[in-house]
Amino acid sequence: QVQLVESGGGLVQAGGSLRLSCAASGLRLSGASTGWFRQAPGKEREFLASIKWTGSTSDYADSVLGRFTISRDNAKNTVYLQMNSLKPEDTAVYYCAAGYTWPIREATSAYWGQGTRVTVSS
Question: Maximum distance among all alpha carbons in the chain?
Fold first, then answer.
């Protein structure tokens, strides 16, 4: 059984940083594509960043390019999302997802975590 467990969310002031983690079990992340998504209140879930099974290819949404960085630790079977220069509009529930296609998007994600909440205060 595949499980993805996010952690690292919380309350941070605007301009601050957070690092989210997505630990996987039942799935080797080095053999899958992994993505981060978020859903703000009243909005649809949006794609943020993804990393390919090779680990050498990643892509980002324009809204987070240059501020967020996705990475993976194969030994820990964990994917991270480093978020810098956070803004109040980054407030949302953040989800990680994994799948077997590239690029990975919401429709092509086979597995999802339960989400971790990020609140950015102004």
Answer: 40
Q: CA 90 to CA 17: how far, in whole Å? A: 11
Q: How far is CA 11 from the centre of its chain?
A: 17
Supply the pLDDT for residue 118. 98
If you ran DSSP here, which 8-state letter would residue 65 be given? B
- Return d(Cα 116, Cα 51) in angstroms, integer: 19
Q: Are strands 10-13 and 116-121 parallel, antiparallel or unpaired?
A: parallel
SS3 content of the chain, % helix, strand, coil (to 5): 5, 50, 40
Cis peptide upstream of residue 103 (ω within 30 degrees of 0): yes
* Separation of alpha carbons 61 and 74, rounded Å: 24
Cβ(44)–Cβ(106) below 8 Å: no
Residues (pLDDT < 50) of the chain are: none
Give the model's pLDDT for residue 106.
84
**Residues present in the chain in total:** 122
Whole-number pLDDT of residue 108: 84
Adjacency order of strands within the sheet including 78-83:
3-7, 18-25, 78-83, 68-73
